[in-house]
Amino acid sequence: MKLSDVADRLNCRLEGDGALEVTRVTGIEDAAAGDLTFYANSRYAQKLRATRATAVIAAEDVETPCPTLRSAHPYLTFARALELLHPQDRCAPGVHRTALLADGARLGADVSIGPFVVIARGADIGARTIVHAFTYVGEAAVVGDDCVLHSHVTIRERVTLGHRVVVQDGAVVGGDGFGFAQQPDGSHHKIPQVGTVIIGDDVEIGALAAIDRPSVGRTIVGRGTKIDNLVQVAHGATIGEHVLLAAQVGIAGSTVIEDCVTLAGQVGVAGHLTVGRGTVATAQTGIPNSVDPGSFISGYPAIDNREWLKASAIFRRLPELKKAVSALEARVAELEKKG
Questions:
Q1: Which string of DSSP letters, residue by residue, matches 101-116?
Q2: For residue 298, which of 336, 335, 263 has the smallest C-alpha distance?
Q3: pTM of the full predicted structure?
Q4: Structure confidence by residue, pLDDT tens digits, 215-242
Q5: N or C terminus: fewer CB in 10 A for the chain?
Q6: Confidence grade of residue 336 (pLDDT, cut at 50, 70, 90)
Q7: 235 belongs to the catalytic site
């Protein structure tokens, strides 16, 4: 595609020869002639100067060595360039001969159902939705329009997925919550998990993630939220809109994560609390108590990030500080003996 056409489609200002052809988008280190790359992080300044790409996506104030598509949001433009130059193949509509559709299952227009898929009684699959091989959609579940369920996904009974939801391989939505009542003899009696899970529009759920149903009520994931691989959302939790949950985040039962929160990798959140809107928690933070909106937190127990950085710096010096304190204690004891 001509660079001028790419610039028009991406709504970018072009600097350089618009007649040049680009055929793919690639990373700044691997780029060669015919490639379009992007620059959005100052750590790659040296690599930008050495790039062999035909063109680069960059902000207005960045000096570049080649024709440039100027963008106020280079990373977002990079994403749209990928969509433009690397269009995804769409599965052909139809139902594979090995798929099993129970009586009362409903399929919308132009649905694609792959090999060995099981659609249980009363389930409703929206228009243009793609269900890949070995996926199970439970009884009376609802899957909206334009969704993609990748291989080995499980959507349990009575779960509702909105429109344009993507569920990656092996994820389970609507599995039983972890609910047990201790009996007098110390054993644990399972509490029936008869609630449901509701997933909003434009949500993405990563591979092997688990979003559990509660004993009663609903587990909710709000519109536009993105959930990474291996995330656990426990029974009765409420996840707001446009939340980011990175890999191995664990959220305990009945907790509320408000809109636009970001939890980095391996953050753990205790149950029955609220994490306020816009909060950011850095990797491996442990959150045992409710958090005010707009907080930036780290560590365990979670504290303000700046305080945690100061504490971390002191922590590294603890051995030498201990020696210094011991020496001072010995000196004080010596002075006291001398009277």
A1: E-TT-EE-TT-EE-TT
A2: 263
A3: 0.91
A4: 999 999 999 999 999 999 999 999 999 9
A5: C
A6: confident
A7: yes
